[in-house]
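Worked example 3 (structure in, sequence out).
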């Protein structure tokens, strides 16, 4: 739904005075949704070591970084995609070098990669290739050379791809401006040309960018470069934040569907009945006329036809659902034909919500609760793998099918790291989620993390066991001092102390004291953690019956003593 960045580019690579070229470079400017969600990539690399191995290393860095970056999920942030790809490349180069070559640094290369996505530039850098920026006539280096200085004229490459089993990748990002010019070069260029010469050649308006790159390389050779010479130039022509009107037109391109009723034919489906209707959405059970199966159609409410934030959230739900693939997550289906209205289609799951199950099972078996928790975690991990946070996990958004299998639903509040990097003129400042299940740090305005979903999971487990919330409903729950955990065993005597303490840790108001992973939480939910026995709860909480029996006995003895003293006084 967003407009895309527009960039012009040019590049040139030459062996120079050397018999072979160990440099390699590549630029990819995709189209459509790939450009929108992944952006533009430029990579330059300079092989280290023997001629054959150096060329192989640099080629592998350039080709694999580009292909693997675009193969990473659209939902990933650019940083995660770039760093994941770079570390995988390093491992491959190092392991192959160990197998095929005896020389140290045989299959090694420098690497400088630039990702231009929406309104931001992301840089990944290893070695002494360079990325520089010309902005408003000023040339500014964005990377630093990884050199070890051994003397006045002696220096060595301190860091390279494939040099070790682990690599430290420099990462940097900056906001883009129109007419920004990025220059990527190997040392054969930037060690032969002065910054002033490089800037003047890159700004030569008499030539297109391809010709400017060729002239920079040729000038470096003329200046006596003793190495291969490579240059890439990319210029920002237009940014998405300059195209708001086009954004609005694209967002509102599809009209809202009319109200539907049983028997209506709609976009290749026949409506069977209305499942749910509210002021925000309508949900229908329908028959896919082509595939002959039942599906669910969700349509937006005409009450929000002019609400751009609402429309963006609705389209966001469909995007998230299509990006996920898990038996524990409701599947969003591709429409049977080209859509003429705004709606989306999902699988039909016959069953009930976990909220209904909780009402029907006030004191559930602990093992059943653990089984449900395991399935919920499996679904949340599907979000985690895509760098997403559900943000609205609660019993109402968890379906149980006829076989007792769980599916997570409702993706309107899902936080997607990759989409957060895309410019949108539509502001939506509302807190995502449902108050009782929102982690305190999210209510305070911090970005959601997986620990926010873990908090909501802890509240859900507590609710399965007790039918209640772990914290009182009144007061400002964002203030830790007012959050007093109500032990689950007070409402459900079947809950052991260690299990109660596990849930208490999961819903701790301070995220640093919660579990760090779903697996750690689930392990303690099944196995007594010795740490939870160091500080025993008061006897009244651990065993109320014994406490009150003891208290009654104490009162009886006090009464006997009082009667005895009265008798002695007479």
């Amino acid at each position: 739904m967003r407009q895309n960045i527009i960039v012009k580019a040019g590049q040139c690579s030459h062996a120079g005075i050397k018999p072979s070229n160990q440099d390699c470079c590549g630029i990819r400017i995709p189209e459509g949704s790939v450009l929108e969600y992944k952006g533009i990539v430029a990579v330059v690399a300079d092989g280290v070591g023997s001629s054959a191995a150096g060329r192989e290393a640099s080629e592998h860095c350039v080709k694999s970084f580009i292909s693997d970056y675009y193969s990473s999920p659209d939902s990933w942030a650019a940083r995660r995609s770039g760093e994941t790809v770079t570390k995988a490349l390093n491992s491959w180069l190092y392991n192959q070098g160990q197998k095929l070559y005896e020389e140290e640094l045989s299959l090694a290369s420098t690497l400088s990669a630039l990702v231009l996505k929406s309104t931001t530039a992301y840089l990944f850098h290893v070695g002494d290739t360079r990325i520089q920026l010309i902005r408003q006539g000023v040339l500014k280096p964005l990377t630093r050379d990884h050199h070890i200085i051994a003397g006045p004229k002696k220096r060595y490459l301190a860091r390279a791809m494939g040099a070790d089993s682990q690599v430290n990748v420099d990462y940097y990002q900056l906001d883009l401006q129109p007419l920004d010019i990025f220059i990527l070069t190997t040392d054969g260029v930037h060690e032969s040309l002065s910054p002033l010469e490089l800037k003047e050649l890159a700004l030569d308006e008499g030539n297109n960018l391809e010709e400017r790159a060729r002239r920079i390389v040729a000038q470096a050779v003329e200046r006596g470069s003793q190495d291969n010479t490579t240059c890439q130039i990319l210029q920002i022509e237009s940014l998405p934040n300059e195209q708001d009107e086009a954004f609005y037109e694209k967002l509102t391109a599809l009209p809202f569907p009319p109200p539907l009723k049983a028997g209506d034919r709609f976009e290749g489906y026949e409506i069977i009945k209305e499942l749910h209707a509210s002021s925000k959405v309508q949900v229908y059970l329908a028959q896919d006329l082509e595939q002959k199966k039942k599906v669910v159609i969700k349509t937006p409410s005409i009450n929000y036809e002019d609400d751009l934030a609402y429309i963006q959230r609705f389209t966001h739900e469909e995007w998230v659902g299509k990006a996920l693939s898990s038996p524990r997550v409701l599947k969003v289906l591709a429409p049977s034909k080209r859509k003429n209205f705004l709606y989306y289609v999902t699988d039909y799951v016959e069953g009930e919500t976990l909220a209904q199950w909780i009402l029907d099972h006030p004191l559930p078996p602990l093992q059943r609760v653990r089984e449900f928790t395991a399935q919920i975690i499996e679904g949340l991990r599907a979000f985690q793998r895509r760098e997403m946070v559900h943000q609205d996990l609660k019993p109402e958004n968890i379906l149980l099918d006829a076989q007792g299998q769980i599916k997570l639903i409702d993706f309107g509040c899902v936080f997607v790291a990759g989409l957060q990097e895309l410019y949108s003129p539509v502001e939506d400042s509302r807190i995502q989620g449902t108050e009782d299940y929102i982690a305190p740090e999210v209510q305070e305005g911090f970005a959601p993390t997986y620990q926010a979903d873990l908090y909501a999971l802890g509240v859900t487990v507590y609710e399965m066991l007790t039918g209640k919330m772990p914290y009182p409903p009144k007061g400002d729950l964002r203030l830790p001092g007012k959050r007093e955990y109500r032990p689950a065993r007070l409402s459900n005597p079947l809950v052991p102390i260690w299990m109660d303490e596990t849930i208490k840790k999961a819903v701790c108001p301070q995220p640093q004291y919660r579990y760090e992973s779903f697996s750690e939480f689930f392990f303690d939910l099944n196995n007594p953690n010795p740490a939870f026995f160091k500080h025993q709860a008061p006897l009244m909480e651990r065993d109320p019956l014994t406490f009150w029996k003891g208290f009654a006995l104490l009162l009886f003895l006090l009464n006997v003593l009082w009667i005895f003293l009265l008798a002695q006084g007479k």
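Notes: Residues 544-569 form the longest helix (26 residues). The CA atoms of residues 200 and 515 lie 55 Å apart.
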